[in-house]
Amino acid sequence: MKTNIINLENYRTQLGNVKSKVFTGRDRGLDVREKSHIDELFN
After folding, report:
1. Cα three-residue angle 13-15-19, rounded to 5 degrees
2. Domain limits, the chain
């Protein structure tokens, strides 16, 4: 059975022992940001 759950941990970037926030949107690419409307959440 396939689920539609997305593990957000898979989208974190890690530098050493420091993990970034998942929803920065800045390193995802403009196309993804436009489709997800993520910038609208912070304006």
Report:
1. 55
2. 17-42
Cα gap 23→26, rounded to integer Å: 8
Q: 20-31: b or e for each residue (b if 16 or more CB lie within 10 Å)?
A: eeeeebeeeeee
Task: Please choose, from the candidates 12, 15, 14, 31, the residue with its C-alpha nearest in 3D space to the C-alpha of residue 23.
Answer: 12
pLDDT digits (tens, 9 = 90+) for 25-36: 555 566 666 777
Collapsing DSSP states into helix, strand and coil, what is residue 42?
helix
Q: What is the largest CA-CA distance in the chain?
A: 38
The conformation of residue 10, written as its DSSP 8-state character, comes to: G
Q: What integer pLDDT is reported at residue 3 of this predicted model?
A: 74
